[in-house]
Every structure is written in structure tokens, then in C-alpha cells.
Amino acid sequence: MRWVRGSRLLAVAAVAVGCSAEASSSGEGSATCRVVEPSKTLPADLPESSGLAASRRNPGVLWTHNDSGDRAEVFAVDAAGRLMGTSEIPGARNKDWEDIAVGPCAGGDCLYIADTGDNDRKRDDVAIYRVPEPAPGARTGPAERLSVSYPGGSRDIEAMFVLPSGEIYLISKGRKDTQTLYRFRPDGRAERIVDLGSATEDQLKYITGASASPSGRWVAIREYKLLSIYRTADLVAGRVAPALEVDLTEVGEAQGEGVTLLDNGRVVLTSEGGFKGSPGTIAILQCEMPSE
């Protein structure tokens, strides 16, 4: 999603970064998340970091990409936001890339890129690109294109996660439709699993990113100013009470978009810059995960 000048997000864009983020668990006492790395500037080539994924092949590498209309390429950055390389993806087109994940494929580990943004719900060409994970800066092989169709017509999707089993899940944003979790089927159809929320005109409540932990035990779903962490088994079974919710206001993001979750409770967040020409940002939280 590109920034719209005059949005209510302007009201929170100037919030200073705090030393902690408030968190609460659902029916399991309380937990806390600390900001261990305040928001830092991403390279100028990344003004619209829209998705984020931790590499499996390259320790310490995070993969991200720009939003709609950029070249078909992904950027490797480290936890401090420093650029480690740019990888071109032949055979792909960035019409409206919204999220990225790392998951299994026939060649080992692959990048999954969700070209699923559809603000006006008019696209009939949404897809997920799958490509073997490259080394930072290396050109990838040709992308495999997985076409996506939804029950009831088009949806605006900005969040995707991939489980260790290879199952792909998509979550609608909630701008013009319900916030719905879908399972992507091998035949290209998205199967509705459960509604997470109703359509909303509150831009801060739009769902903008998701991530499964490497073990597959947890799924993080983010809005602009809220992070929700679910037990995967509960979520994919249609039980929608999060195990942990975190207020992201103190992180100080202009337009929070990307998220990746690690098994140790480390959460990395990226944000679009918010204004034309402004770089994006990266921040890191350390969360106390609920007991199993």
C-alpha cells in the first residue's frame, strides 16, 4: 500500500521511540516486549519496505522488498538495516508486492513473494512468486508463478505466511472486506479458514503483514500499530484469540508494514517511509513468548 498524504497515520508518525512496548496475553497473565533496537533508517533504495522475512540459507540476513511498481528484486539487509545485496528475480513482475516469506520447496528453501495487493479489488492477476533463496546480491533463477483466486471475488491481501509444511496462508487487509484467513490450495484457489475481524475504516487496524516462526509454532500478524501473536495450531483451526498482543505505538514507525518472527521471541519490524522520497525503517523487539 502506498502512502496517502493526509492520512490519519500522520497523527502518529512523529511518536518517539520508547524503551518498551506494552503487551498483554489473552487469559494467560501478562508478558512484555522490549524494544531492543529502536527504529533505524533503511537504505534509500528501500522507501517502501512492505514485507520482511528472515533467511534460512544465509544467517543474519533479512529479505525485504518495495511496494507496488518497483523492479522485480529483493533486498538483503542485516539487523541494523545495512544493505548486503540486491537480487533480481527474472520472470517476475512487481505489480503490487505486499509480503515475503521463506519456506520449503523442491530445491530446499524458497522465497515466496505475495503480489497480492489490490486496493480497489479489481485485479484478476494476483499471484505468489516462488524462487529458490539466493545468496545476497545473486540473481535468482526464473520465478515460478502461482496464480491465486478467492471465493466470492477479488480481495486486498497484504499479509502472507508459509509454514514448514509448505502450506501458504493469506490474510485480507480489512479495508473493503473482512479480515479473513485463507489457505492457498495447490489448485490455485484460496480456501477461507476464518474471519479475524470485520471490514474497518480505521486505517490503523488494517492488517499489513504476517510471519510464521521457523519452527511453525507461532504466527505473528501485524497492523500498523498492533502486533498479535497466535499459536499456529489454534489459528489454522479457526480459533482466533491471540496468545499475545503488543501495542507498537512506541516503536515510532511512520507506516508499519513488515514483520518477521523468530522462535526465541525476537520480532523484526519494517516500515515504509511514509513520505515520498523518505527511507523506510527497521526496528527489533524481544518478546517473552507465552508458555506452550
Question: In brief, what are we looking at here?
Answer:
The protein has 292 residues and is an all-beta fold. The chain is built from one helix and 22 strands. Strand 8 and strand 9 (108-115) form a beta hairpin.
Approximately how much beta-strand content do the residues carry?
35-45%
The domain count comes to 1
Could you list the spans in which at least 5 consecutive residues all have pLDDT below 50? 1-20, 24-29
Look at the structure and give the CATH class.
Answer: Mainly Beta
Distance between the termini: 35 Å
Rg over CA atoms, rounded to whole Å, is: 17 Å
Give a quick account of the main beta sheet: strands, pairing sense, barrel closure: 5 strands, antiparallel
- Second-tier CATH architecture: 6 Propeller
What descriptors fit this protein?
mainly beta, 43% strand, 5-stranded antiparallel sheet, single chain, 292 residues, disordered N terminus, Neuraminidase, 2% helix
